[in-house]
Amino acid sequence: MKRFLPVAAMVALLAGCSTPTATPTESITPDALTGTVTVLAAASLTGSLDDVVTAFEALHPNVKVTISYGGSSALAAQIVAGSPADVFFSANDSTMKTVTDAGLTVAPTVVLENVLEIAVPAGNPGKVTGLSDFANSDLTIALCDPAVPCGSAAAKLFTLVGITPSVDTLEEDVKAALTKVSLGEVDAALVYVTDVKVAGDKVEGIEIPEAQQVINEYPISLLTDSANPDAAQAFIDYLRSAAGVKVFVDAGFEAP
Q1: Cβ-proximal residues to 115 (8 Å cutoff; 6+ apart), any chain
Q2: Which of 6, 40, 62, 225 is positioned for an S-S bond with 34, CB 3.0–4.6 A?
Q3: Buried b vs exposed e over 109-126: b needs ≥16 C-beta within 10 Å?
């Protein structure tokens, strides 16, 4: 017995000094995601979505996310026409439905909401106070084209409140309408709360209580013809995570 004791003691000693086996969450494995993810996204997502992309790429350094912004209806038409893309992020359900009806989406999911707000140039030179001023032909008014989500929502809003706007220019997307305001080319425009916020001191926002009845929902979907579905789905999953949604909420969007 005595001659086996040192061996047993040595085994115990070595066991105590050995490196603990790493748990699955502690082990480091190479990132299997690679390649490019092409996203077609509503113009109103500019800025916030860029920040989400930066964070995602930091987690997955072998993936490059490229974004093409524009009016949702135009982007939907591009996808249906065969434009290569992995992800579609729309500013309303109807434009996503266009792509879904063509059999090109995989389980679209609403991840954000946005609401309209009046934007006026700094100092409010037109003395705009509310939606009723949009019927004043003495003011220069910009709206989004009704074919795009911000224009469609505006049309519903004006019908709701019984106002016929005196429109001077219809813009291809919400960023174009916002630019008209920030440059002082129009007295007012209807954009999103998020656009007013990102414009800083270049514009002033006027809230519209009735706009809560025409909230825009933002669905996102993997596309069936995606050339990189694993990385594309990983990007969607990150965007829908608490960290991803927080970026948008901080920019003025709302979680559904």
Answers
A1: 192, 193, 211, 212, 214, 215, 216, 254
A2: 62
A3: eebbebbbbbbbbeeeeb
Residues 128, 205 contacting (CB under 8 angstroms): no
Cβ(119)–Cβ(191) below 8 Å: yes
The Cα–Cα gap between 187 and 239 comes to 36
Token pair of 81 as six digits: 């026409």
Closest alpha carbon to 120 in 187, 191, 208, 197: 187
> Which residue in the block uniquely carries the two structure tokens 């003495």?
138
pTM over 0.85: no
Pairing of strands 216-223, 203-206: unpaired
Is there a contact between 170 and 143 (Cβ–Cβ < 8 Å)? Answer: yes
